[in-house]
Specification:
By secondary structure, the protein is mainly α. It has a domain at 39-172: Serine Threonine Protein Phosphatase 5, Tetratricopeptide repeat. It contains 24 helices and no strands. The chain is elongated.
């Protein structure tokens, strides 16, 4: 019996020693892994610091470059070309640098270059010894965001789906992914689908971690901003007003009164206000936006021209066509250079410029700009969704002014399909009876009673969302009263 007890004791002790040995080995292995990881992390950090010091910042030293005029863009371009060459065997370092350079390019409005850097980062991650799903998802979502800004909606959608698929596989969701997906839907003119994505971000719980809470605040700010834009696009004016005010307050608190993040919202809020006929308030918001952009981004940054869109449209409202053309011409050149000729923002500017030129009698130039805008938009038109209704609205106005009645008929029918997804009293929908009236006014076979009926219909629908002293309503009143002297072939607002 004593022997059996001693045997049990020895087995217990040996088992305990074995477990202890296994535990010790596991702890040693974990410590070794942690040590190697720390060494790897330290090595990567040092490599990044050395690269930034020797291959980026050193370019500002005229004693090393023999130049004193190196710009930030030139320094970044030079550094970007050296990453893969310098870090062939350190893909994790190359990934971090490519992603950082992508962020800089995006901040400069150079979206195609930013997307190229993100694709390099994706290749680096594929070469890494550790394939981390969250990093893959983050890179795909970042690429989706950049391609969206570049106007490449098709590839942006593929990148977003790739990132979201990884997250679904992990059984997770991401506020960042929801936000970017919503933004892409907005750019595609699918605002009714985009709004739930933004709402999910805004309803997310806040974290107790200071850094996480700050990041969440930024995401909520962005979601609120794009909710405002979507609500404006759909014609839900009171809700859009509330979201704009909320976003401005958040961004003043989070980024300060001199941040370009604030300037973007102020510029779009100015555009929203002038659509409602609140020109004084619109001018205040646009002026503040212009000052912030000029002081924070400098004279050479293309984004400093953003408020000029609003200023140009205010001139158009006032029928000050020459002043509008002076703003729109340079603005179109900048957008074409930085974003490309087929980007929606570029096409909007060119289409509005064509309308302004048609109103001052520059018919040949107006027709050329109109035809160019329509031809450039055609391959991507479907991808713009309801946002294409802005382009068609400008094309109708220009065609009316140029007397291209057959084209007007075709465009009105196209616009009817686009605005069917908007609120019934949306201004682009409300203007369609006016456009028909202007077309029929010059048709001898048309009864003038039908023309007046269409104009009354147009006026009544406009008054649902606009005050009676709005310039657009006044234009319709003038047509109804026959007080214009000569009939304006292109009524109303931008």
């Amino acid at each position: 019996m004593a022997a059996q007890q001693r045997r049990r004791l020895l087995l217990t002790l040996s088992g305990g020693l074995a477990l202890g040995l296994v535990g010790s080995l596991l702890m040693y292995w974990q410590a070794d892994v942690a040590r190697k990881q720390a060494q790897k992390t330290s090595s990567e950090k040092q490599a990044i610091v050395d690269f930034l010091a020797n291959d980026l910042l050193a370019q500002a030293d005229p004693y090393k470059t023999n130049r004193s005029d190196i710009t930030l863009r030139a320094a970044i371009d030079s550094a970007a070309g050296k990453v893969d060459r310098n870090f062939t065997n350190q893909p994790d370092v190359a990934l971090a640098l490519h992603k950082t350079i992508a962020n800089v390019y995006e901040g400069l409005g150079l979206y195609q270059l930013a997307s190229d850097q993100l694709r390099h980062a994706q290749n680096d991650h594929a070469k890494s010894s550790e394939q981390i799903p969250h990093i893959s998802a983050d890179l795909s979502i970042s690429l989706c965001s950049t391609l969206r800004s570049a106007g490449d909606f098709e590839n942006a959608a593929l990148a977003c789906e790739a990132g979201n698929q990884i997250l679904r596989t992990l059984g997770e969701s991401s506020d960042s992914a929801n936000l970017i997906t919503g933004k892409l839907l907005f750019e595609q003119g699918r605002c009714k689908e985009a709004l739930p994505e933004f709402e999910s971000v805004q309803s997310s719980p806040t974290s107790s971690n200071t850094a996480d809470a700050r990041r969440m605040r930024e995401l909520i700010s962005d979601a609120s901003y794009f909710s405002a834009l979507c609500l404006q696009e759909l014609g839900r004016t009171p809700a859009a007003q509330d979201k704009f005010v909320q976003t401005i307050q958040i961004r003043r608190e989070r980024f300060g009164a001199k941040s370009p993040y604030l300037a973007w919202v102020l510029s779009d809020y100015g555009n929203f206000l002038f659509e409602q006929g609140q020109f004084v308030q619109a001018g205040v918001a646009l002026e503040e936006s212009r000052d912030i952009f000029a002081n924070s981004l400098g004279e050479d940054d293309p984004e400093r021209y953003v408020p000029d869109v609003g200023f140009a449209l205010i001139r158009l409202y006032a029928h000050d066509w020459p002043s509008a053309i002076k703003l729109l011409g340079p603005l179109h050149a900048v957008k074409e250079k930085t974003l490309g000729a087929t980007h929606l923002w570029t096409l909007k500017t060119l289409s509005t410029l064509a309308w302004a030129k048609s109103e001052v009698g520059s018919e040949e130039e107006a027709a050329k700009d109109l035809d160019t805008a329509m031809a450039l938009a055609q391959p991507k038109f479907e991808a713009f969704g309801t946002r294409a209704s802005f382009l068609v609205d400008q094309w109708i106005r220009t065609s009316l002014a140029l007397g291209r009645d057959d084209l007007v008929r075709s465009l009105i029918k196209q616009q009817q399909g686009l605005v069917s997804a908007l609120e019934p009293h949306h201004m682009r929908a409300a203007m369609l009876p006016c456009y028909w009236a202007e077309l029929l006014r010059h048709d001898p076979a048309s009864a003038q009673a039908s023309v007046v009926q269409l104009e009354n219909q147009c006026r009544n629908e406009l008054l649902i969302g606009l005050p009676a002293d709005h310039p657009l309503v006044k234009d319709v009143d003038a047509m109804l009263a026959g007080a214009t002297g000569k009939v304006r072939r292109s009524p109303g607002r931008p």
